[in-house]
Amino acid sequence: MSAYRDMLTIRLFEESLLRCAEQGLVPGAIHPYTGQEAVAVGVLGARDPAEWVVSFYRCHGHALAAGCPPDRVMREVLGRSGGLCGGKSGSMHLADRDHRLLGSTSIVAAQLPIAAGAAMAARLDGDGRAVLVFCGDGALGAGGAYETLTIAAAQRLPLLVVCEDNGWQDQTASALVRHLSPVELVAGLKLPYVEVDGNDVEAVHDAADTALAACRAGTGPQVVVAHTYLRDFHTQLGQHPPPQYRPEEERRRWAERDPLTVAAGRLTADLAALHAEVAAEVDALLQAALDAEEPDPATATTGVTVTGDLIGAGR
Ligand SMILES: Cc1ncc(C[n+]2csc(CCOP(=O)(O)OP(=O)(O)O)c2C)c(N)n1
Predict the structure, then answer these.
(1) 1-49+62-95+132-176+199-206+224-285 is classed in which CATH architecture?
(2) Whole-angstrom distance, CA of residue 122 vs CA of residue 314
(3) Which ligand 1 atom is nearest residue 174's CA?
(4) pTM of the full predicted structure?
(5) pLDDT tens digits, residue range 95-118?
(6) What is the mean pLDDT of residues 236-264?
(7) CA gyration radius for the chain?
(8) Which of 23, 34, 134, 158 has CB atoms 3.0–4.6 Å from 130's, for a disulfide?
(9) From atom 25 of ligand 1, which residue's Cα is the shortest distance away?
(10) So where are the chain's domains?
(11) pLDDT band for position 239 (cuts 50, 70, 90)
């Protein structure tokens, strides 16, 4: 029930932000996480909260599932004071030291070497903790991903790579542009991996739990390839992309396996009441964010140092 609630919170959070984007209320672009909620909630449900997480531009769901306060995430995305990073980072660059969200990056695959560095620090600290990093399927085709995975394997770094294979890379179907699937790629690098139904939160949780245990035990990097689907479009810049971007039949097929539908099938609780409750919560935090001031321009060049005193502080 708690996983269902967490996924529902992310879904309604993202849908309200999409409506805001349509009204021009979101500075810059947002990359929705609708449809992929079971990956963040399943994986981060298996994490030790002391373990660092690194994300990418599709990061709102990861931040919420990592325990970042939803009101502060909402304010950050809307560029308001009180946001996770003072309202100065925006949608693609969420970071929160209190909840061990090391950062999120707009540069495809750049999160991987950052996470490997954190995993190196964890290994040197000998604290038995893993580092978790999320990426899309397209990111695994980037040169930096290959280099990171090679070094992580050679150094046996405690790194869990969660590849969210949603079948698309921006507005291009992955099948049209990739030579190897994520699984073929990591298998070729001789990395231990598991494939999982990324719309089944329990299956994702179990896969991540096992992979994290292996990372912590010192067997080196592990990869979870989660097959999932993005319900909305790659990014939302304040207008609807043309409908021909995603085949209607494909969208319908995946909608039948929506992560909320899959999880609901196992529950007997009154989900209508829960929906109303979560919707009211999300409405309230959206309103509070919209009512908040924009950051004071005098603070534009001040910030929080997210690294340095954080990683490897115990050494
Ligand atoms: C280095 C770099 N190249 C290109 C882009 C533009 N870009 C943003 S998202 C994206 C597609 C990435 O697809 P994938 O890794 O599958 O993740 P998804 O967006 O599907 O979650 C591209 C090419 C970028 N942000 N960074």
Answers:
(1) 3-Layer(aba) Sandwich (3.40)
(2) 10
(3) 16
(4) 0.96
(5) 999 999 999 999 999 999 999 999
(6) 86
(7) 19
(8) 158
(9) 107
(10) 1-49+62-95+132-176+199-206+224-285
(11) low
